[in-house]
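Hey,
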Amino acid sequence: MNVPTIMQDLWGSLRRGELVLVERTDAGDQYLDLHNIVTWGLEDEYNIVIVDILDSLHLLTAKARLAGIETDVLTKAEVIKIGGRTQTGNVIKTIEEISEPVILTKKFKDVYEQVLESRFPVLTIVLGLEKLLMASEFSSANVHALVKLMSQYVGDERRLTVYLVKTGIIGPERQSLTALLEDIATTVIRVSKKGKTTEFHVIKSVTPDLEDMVLRF
């Protein structure tokens, strides 16, 4: 079984309505994860929407190309862009103001509801949440606004949402914030490099067969 097949089997075990947290705990990049998720989603007949926070999609696309990975598949996704300056992909909405998360979450919800109503079923892939948390200075009010928005869509079977998060950027001094994100999520997958091997560890899942699964390649 090759790497894409292993990962497609994992993604295929997820359920509509879930909020999946894919944590990169080391300094590694997530362009391969993004490529695999989009490829699987298209094959499973999802409409793909990427939430691109602060130019994260541009960076991952550029790194994928440099690594020799074909990126045309990423152009088949629609993009909701939050902050940043570099337009990448098929951008359907840009939300420029990120300094007030309460206002940001309202604007996002307005456009996202339109997407869910017109494009069911939707696979939403969120890139750069850790950057938004840093930009909001981790204030309790800002974190509350973001967490409220995330929690609201758990169980909404119009969509399946995957957050690709680099928890190392959030930092060990804010472990409680990482724990909060894990608590909201229905499935948590930790990704790390061990020597020349990449390990995917499902530390939590509403699907019993996935719980504590470890994939290495």
